[in-house]
Specification:
By secondary structure, the protein is mostly helical. It contains twelve helices and no strands.
Length: 231
């Protein structure tokens, strides 16, 4: 009779089955690391330790993944306090969305490049429409105003993120980049570009929050004008 020495069996821990929520969370983390242009299904599969084919059981393609990412980002953005007036709610919503988009690398680009689907994203849209209707806008004007308000905040955040990326390059900073822009504008031929030369300091003004507040104020004044003309 042969005696087999006792050996403790070392079972590998069973991997938790992959689900869509895991895929989206991993994709968001990867987005923050590499950016939208480098986010691929292959890289995401490597991050999750699976073959790319496994991902397609949970998302049809990269387009659907980006829609899900847009919804995930939207889910992190708080809603405005409903106790405030419609103007206070609109201002708070704008700031919340801007911060939420800037919280993730290329977050604004993700939302700008995808259809507004997903339950959490749709709730933000519905909330914005409700705020605008509460402000006295007609249904048609509320729908149109929501479109432009969303574009303003999303593109503002996208532009802000692009500029921040330039400023992170070696030897660059926001202050030096804006100083270069001002010098370039002032050096233009005044006979051809008199207004750019005169407004060089204002065109490259280094207060992004003040610029955002000005945009919101423009939006609010326009909305008030439309609300007053409603019969």
């Amino acid at each position: 009779m042969s005696i087999v020495p006792y050996r403790k069996s070392e079972r590998r821990p069973r991997r938790k089955p992959l689900d869509q929520a895991q895929v989206v969370r991993a994709a968001l983390a990867l987005l923050d690391e590499v950016g939208l242009d480098e986010l691929t299904m292959r890289r995401l599969a490597e991050r999750l330790g699976v073959k790319a084919a496994s991902l397609y059981r949970h998302v049809r393609n990269k387009d659907e993944l980006l829609v899900l990412l847009g919804d995930e980002i939207s889910g992190e953005i708080p809603f405005p306090n409903p106790a405030g007036g419609w103007r206070e709610q609109l201002v708070e919503a704008a700031w919340n969305v801007r911060r939420g988009l800037l919280a993730h690398r290329d977050g604004a680009r993700v939302l700008a490049s995808t259809a507004p689907f997903g339950p959490r994203r749709l709730r933000h849209i519905d909330t914005l429409l409700g705020i605008l209707r509460a402000g006295g806008l007609s249904d048609r004007d509320a729908a149109r105003a929501a479109y432009h308000a969303n574009n303003f905040v999303t593109e503002f955040a996208a532009d802000e993120a692009r500029f921040a990326a330039f400023a992170r390059e070696p030897g660059a900073s926001r202050r030096t980049l804006l100083a270069d822009v001002r010098r370039t504008f002032r050096s233009l031929p005044r006979a051809e570009y008199p207004n750019i030369v005169d407004l060089a300091d204002h065109l490259a003004y280094d207060d992004v929050d003040a610029l955002f507040e000005f945009g919101i104020e423009l939006l609010l004044r326009g909305l008030l004008a439309f609300a007053k003309r409603r019969p």
